[in-house]
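ugh ok fine here u go
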Amino acid sequence: MHRVCAPDDPRVQDYIGLTDVALRSRHEPAAGVYLAESGKVIRRALAAGHRPRSLLLAGKWVEPLADLVDEVAARGAPVYVGDPGVLESITGFNLHRGAIAAMHRPPLPAVADVVTGARRIVVLEDVVDHTNVGAVFRSVAGIGADAVLVSPRCADPLYRRSVRVSMGTVFQVPWTRLDPWPAGLDALRDLGLQVAALTPDAGAVDLDRLAAEPPERLALVLGTEGDGLSAGAGARADLAVRIPMAGGVDSLNVAAAAAVALWALRPR
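structure:
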């Protein structure tokens, strides 16, 4: 273990300014790094075979997280320990979850490798809220869908907040970016998937009707918060599907809509 006494210590550059979303969103993919926060999430990242770059924690957490400290050290990554005030100056927030790890970002697989054999996948177009992205991954893992594809401008599934909200399921759900967009949706059809656009449009097929005779293999496409799917993405879908709503509400939050649709359309 290595002691960190100053916020400008060059050894902990991976952790600087973690609350600056714009900075981190640019820096992390380019640097080939992502951040995993909390012992549970870090353990899931390690269990998925991801390689640690380093571990950062306050001194009071060394003993409670001794097994994690030992595992990270055994994999050849340094462990940095500091006082809470110093760590907050580095990261921008209180590490109340015990520890945070900088991890090597794994390379993205090809689309065909992700969807081959998949019966249910979710495709996200330009979803900008990292919390929504993480929640979708958790629903995919929990309900039992097979994969997630994200458009080039969609928020990063490996951003710290996405990882935390997903409870680390982003490490177990196969995913990659679908590029070009929206033309990449045509490739899904070529790979044997029916493409369904989720929309509040009154002319769309009701979810209950589709669930009564679900397709064997389905890609469910959801759009960005607020505006929903773009016209280009909707035009490339084989059909449009809506969740019937009540109470004068036109639609659900994108993460909630994904969970409802996945549950209704789960393979029997």
